[in-house]
Design a protein that fits this description.
It is globular and about 55 Å long. 24% of the residues lie in helices and 19% in strands. The longest helix is centred in the middle third of the chain and has 14 residues. The protein is of the alpha/beta class. The protein has three helices and nine strands, in the order βββββαβαβββα. The mean pLDDT is 95. Bound molecules: flavin mononucleotide. The site of flavin mononucleotide (FMN) has 11 residues, from loops.
Amino acid sequence: MAPVDLSVNLAGIPLRTPVVTASGCFASGQEVAEFVDLRQLGAVVVKSMTMEPWAGKPSPRMVETPSGMLNAIGLQNKGVEHFLQVDLPWLNSQRVPVIASIAGNTVQEFMYVADALRRAPGVVAVEVNISCPNLEDHGRAFAMRPEPTLNVMRKLRSSTDLPL
Ligand SMILES: Cc1cc2nc3c(=O)[nH]c(=O)nc-3n(C[C@H](O)[C@H](O)[C@H](O)COP(=O)(O)O)c2cc1C
């Protein structure tokens, strides 16, 4: 029997299937590659990355609740340079499209990361993690109000040609 064609077009990006990973649940892909054939995914959405390395929250970072679990990792990551130098070449060797998830404390930090990713090979789109606290708005997450959301997205639109 012929295999089912699951291919989709997402904002102009051809994906072989609409199944992509959730940011942070798949690290940079390498950590889970022995369990999952990455080539069967539409894309890997990597852990959100920031301008500089972030240490994340102290432990405990997860608690079980009656209806599931809560986590507060605090966006621990090694920063965009590490992603470009180490994680991305490995992901490209796996021939899987990469959606880069970006985060920051300020609009400037988001823009720095988007700019650094501008011509990164294999990065097909940028996912903007606007659930980060915005230090320029009393620490409220960007996504909590329309204006900061519009502001960061508009600035990022001018920083990158990649789908956001
Ligand atoms: C351990 C862990 C780390 C996560 N890290 C990130 C992250 O770095 N960036 C991000 O945008 N979301 C992060 N998330 C959120 C997930 O991408 C996803 O949105 C969340 O788990 C809800 O998915 P669901 O709606 O399918 O349940 C993380 C989730 C978990 C459990």
